[in-house]
From TrEMBL:
This is Glutamate rich WD repeat containing 1. Residues 1-40 are annotated as: Disordered. PROSITE patterns: WD_REPEATS_2 (PS50082), WD_REPEATS_REGION (PS50294). SUPFAM superfamilies: WD40 repeat-like. Keywords: WD repeat.
Amino acid sequence: MMLRMHNLHGTKPPPSEGSDEEEEEEDEEDEEERKPQLELAMVPHYGGINRVRVSWLGEEPVAGVWSEKGQVEVFALRRLLQVVEEPQALAAFLRDEQAQMKPIFSFAGHMGEGFALDWSPRVTGRLLTGDCQKNIHLWTPTDGGSWHVDQRPFVGHTRSVEDLQWSPTENTVFASCSADASIRIWDIRAAPSKACMLTTATAHDGDVNVISWSRREPFLLSGGDDGA
């Protein structure tokens, strides 16, 4: 779902006690003209959506989508961005095009559904996906706007992979966290079975649900079921 909000304004101060009826009527007319507007365009999707992450392939905006059906799909967003800018184009899109919108790529090689998904901030089109069966797969962009997904998962976690984060400074390094309570650092230059370089086995007293790598400082933050 692509949403565009526009005609947004800051809040106005309340009318003063001495304002007359004419001023109040003008204010009401202004308020009608200043009402916020919302446009939306949707793409059909089979099954619940677990997570969405947006990136750019050169000048093309795309969204990676994790489905409860165990598939990860990539959708092109340019057409959606175009139609939400113009009401007439949006009406034509909803009538003639929306039902035919398809993903530009789909991967069904995971053993089940998942939530972990991250685009590399340093290598265009490089993607990581992690599932609830402990597997992490690397997506490498290929010529023609497609991807090669390595069928060999990164080996290390023993339970669901909850989140993934590419390093903001290293092209080949990423972090992962899991319901097995661990946080791991990986280097994709090594074989998937040997790519785990650092492990904090008990980073939390329970599931580690989220991690975030600072873009400015060499820090990685995490949050878990233990409330920490």
